[in-house]
């Protein structure tokens, strides 16, 4: 995922990588793989009820059934509350979300720096 992103960034594209990060060490794993390019973290945060409503509106084969919204939201706030833009997308269409994301990300989030030491400590459990 990082290699193609780096290629697009190097050719002047704005790249949005979509993933669910479990915790800060997982984010710290990605940062050096994207370095020295600027990385900014955005948490799309429509809220638990909007997630449930959106899932219910999807065709059965496209639904994402998940009972852990509350825990996931609490974990993400604990892990990323100090370094991410918490972007409430509850009232936005996907197109509006993308437009506002590209327009606002540089103003709302500082670039994150890779933490090789933290990543290596986690890797070696030191």
Verbal overview:
The chain has 126 residues and is mainly α. Helix content is 52%, strand content 6%. It has six helices and two strands, in the order H-H-E-H-H-E-H-H. It has helices at residues 2-10, 24-34, 48-57, 69-80, 94-108, 116-124; strands at 41-44, 84-87. A two-stranded parallel sheet has the order 1-2. Helix 2 (24-34) packs across helix 6. The chain is globular, with a radius of gyration of 16 Å. The model has no long low-confidence stretch (mean pLDDT 86).
Could you say which structural class the secondary elements and strand pairing correspond to?
Answer: mainly alpha
Strand content: 5-15%
Globular, elongated, flat, extended or rod-shaped: what is the shape? Answer: globular
| N-to-C series of helices and strands | HHEHHEHH
Radius of gyration: 16 Å
For the biggest sheet, the summary is: 2 strands, parallel
Give the mean pLDDT: 86
